[in-house]
């Protein structure tokens, strides 16, 4: 169950107290089936899968939640095609022009008739809260999906003042310096991927994969004024990832030295496997986040924030 992408938020220490009632509050926000005339529904489901009713998995200060959604697939092209057919029939039969108000009403009728027959697409999104250090971690690189997850927790608790990262040091400037000078913080080494951009509007974009980032080719791009927007990194020989200038962690991968700690075939059940994986993941990420906080200046917000 290791996360693959990380969107990070921080919440103040006082919020940690309200997390004690999270398990109780989640029950009222369970995912329900999408009604015949609903486009989508959203709510919490069990991290353990369909066969479990538990909505929260806790290990110490860490709380794992899974947000589920059901969305009816009704492509606009289907709606517009049906609407065009009806408009054509009216024009042919009555010989009159359809006004905007009537057109809107007809479109609503089409949607109401087609929705109950539309396929439903389910989705799941995992996230966890670290009550001790004030991190809310969403397994997604999508800003919208991450903010929706914050909203879902906020709806359950009534109040959840989690905010996106507000670094004191510019990630773009700092990562550009790392790549130009070749001097990275202790424990951090370059990976094999980066995205360089000319900061000017509509400027050139260079994406490198499976590339020696210390090569002359990359350095020439830096000399021409391009800056680092994404940078592949390896932390402590345990985790590899691509860090964006928005501080979103993409392509997160735990290396063999970490995975070997899980052993092979030792988990007695899927529940035990999730428990072990979650414990190991949060331990490793807590260490990484501590360094991100130090490198970029990411203090935990106070109550006034």
TrEMBL record:
Purpose: May be involved in recombination.
Localization annotation: Cytoplasm, Nucleoid
Keywords recorded for this protein, A-Z: Cytoplasm, DNA recombination
Name listed for the protein in its UniProt record: Recombination-associated protein RdgC
The gene coding this protein: rdgC
Keyword set includes Lipid biosynthesis: no
Keyword Cytoplasm belongs to the record: yes
Main location, first listed in the record: cytoplasm
Organism (species): Dokdonella soli
Short name of one Pfam family: RdgC
Family: Belongs to the RdgC family.
Matches recorded under InterPro entries: RdgC (IPR007476)
PANTHER family: RECOMBINATION-ASSOCIATED PROTEIN RDGC (PTHR38103)
């Amino acid at each position: 169950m290791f996360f693959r992408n990380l969107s990070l938020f921080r919440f103040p220490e006082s919020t940690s107290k309200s997390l004690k009632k999270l398990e109780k509050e989640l029950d009222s926000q369970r995912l329900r089936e999408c009604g015949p005339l609903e486009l989508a529904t959203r709510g919490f489901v069990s991290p353990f899968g369909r066969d479990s009713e538990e909505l929260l998995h806790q290990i110490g200060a860490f709380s794992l939640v899974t947000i589920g959604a059901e969305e009816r697939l009704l492509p606009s092209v289907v709606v517009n095609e049906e609407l065009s057919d009806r408009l054509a029939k009216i024009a042919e039969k009555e010989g009159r022009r359809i006004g905007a108000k009537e057109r809107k009403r007809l479109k609503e009728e089409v949607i109401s008739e087609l929705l109950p027959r539309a396929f439903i697409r389910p989705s799941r999104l995992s996230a966890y809260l670290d009550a001790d250090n004030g991190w809310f971690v969403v397994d997604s690189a999508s800003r919208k999906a991450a903010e929706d997850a914050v909203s879902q927790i906020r709806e359950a608790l009534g109040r959840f003042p989690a905010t996106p990262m507000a670094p004191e040091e510019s990630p773009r400037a700092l990562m550009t310096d790392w790549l130009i000078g070749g001097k990275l913080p202790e424990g951090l080494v370059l990976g094999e991927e980066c995205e360089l951009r000319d900061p000017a509007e509509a400027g050139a974009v260079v994406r490198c994969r499976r590339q020696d980032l210390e090569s002359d080719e990359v350095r020439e791009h830096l000399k021409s004024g391009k800056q680092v927007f994404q940078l592949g990194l390896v932390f402590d020989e345990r985790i590899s990832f691509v860090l964006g200038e928005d501080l979103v962690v993409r392509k997160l991968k735990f290396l063999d030295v970490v995975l070997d700690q899980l052993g092979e075939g030792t988990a007695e059940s899927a529940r035990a496997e999730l428990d072990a994986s979650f414990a190991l993941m949060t331990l490793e990420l807590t260490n990484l986040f501590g360094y991100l906080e130090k490198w970029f200046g990411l203090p935990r917000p106070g109550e006034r924030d």
